Amino acid sequence: MQKQTFHRPEEIRRVIPIAPGRQLALSRPLVMGVLNVTPDSFSDGGLHTTVAAAVEHALRMEQDGADIVDIGGESTRPGAEPVGEDKERQRVIPVIQRLRDLTDIPVSIDTYKAGVAQAALEAGADIVNDVSALRFDPDMAGVVARSKAPVVLMHMAGTPHDMQNDPQYRDCVEEILEFFDERIAFCNRQGIDKTKIIIDPGIGFGKRLSDNLEILAHFRQFTRFSVPVIIGASRKSFIGMLHDSEKSAHERLGGSLAAAAVGVMKGAAIVRAHDVPETVEAMKVLQAITETV
């Protein structure tokens, strides 16, 4: 029997260039650890609001096997209110600077503001993770293009404040595919190389329960663009909708791992997760099974 892997042979040789002389190999599923430096994120808000606490958590995630640390200074949970650019910078830049003194783990800045992204890149961040897919700030595409940093384009209907106010789709998966067609073409026009593009279908961002399940069931379709795809289902509310329970968001580990496994088996290259050690363990088991003759 021929050995099977998560990726086609040509994909195994693919990498995400993140800086001169540095790259992320896509030979296995990568784990992106979530670090919210916010008081109001849906799952871990308020836990890492000091620089010391945030850095400690980032280093712990690295020790637990995270390949990337994704740092955000503004909550994008449903109903979240926007945060001013100065406040967001004050939250994230000292954390990035301190991390850069201590580790070379790739750092992603989770922001849709060009000013925050620019400051974060100058402080040592490697990747821009924009939940608006470069739509909310007209200057963001220029920041990404000039920096040559990889960018995550996420699909979201509306804004974090209103995205769950009765979202409607004629065909959720097809509309998201059309969205990425347009966004990737936009990036090309802005001088952003396709090798620097990562996409995220945006589970839980302007989606109903049925939409989230459709995305997971048809996740393989998002690989058609030949760019890395993120599965970001960690602790999302749809898990609680499927499991009649009073558990809080941070207790949705089982559902998070199930969704991550489905995503990876259907082509996801990166798993965005709050529970890093458990996710790393799950990915290692999946890989071992898949590579067994």
Low-confidence stretches: 1-13
CATH architecture: Alpha-Beta Barrel
Q: Report the sheet with the most strands, covering strand number, pairing sense and barrel closure.
A: 8 strands, parallel
- The H-level CATH homologous superfamily, spelled out, is Dihydropteroate synthase-like
Radius of gyration: 18 Å
Number of DSSP-assigned strands: 10
CATH topology: TIM Barrel
> What structural class do the secondary elements suggest?
alpha/beta
Helix content: 25-40%
Describe what this molecule looks like in 3D:
The chain has helices spanning 9-12, 51-63, 85-102, 114-123, 140-147, 172-189, 209-217, 237-242, 253-265, 276-290, and strands at 15-19, 22-25, 30-36, 68-72, 107-110, 127-130, 151-154, 197-200, 230-231, 270-273. It has one domain: TIM Barrel (Alpha-Beta Barrel). The chain starts with 8 loop residues before the first helix and ends with a helix. α2 packs across α3 (85-102), α3 (85-102) packs parallel to α4 and α4 packs parallel to α5 (140-147). It is an alpha/beta fold and 293 residues long. The model is unreliable at 1-13 (pLDDT under 50). α4 (114-123) links the parallel β5 and β6 (127-130). The longest helix has 18 residues, at 85-102. It is built from 10 helices and 10 strands. Strands 8-7-6-5-4-3-10-9 form an 8-stranded parallel sheet.
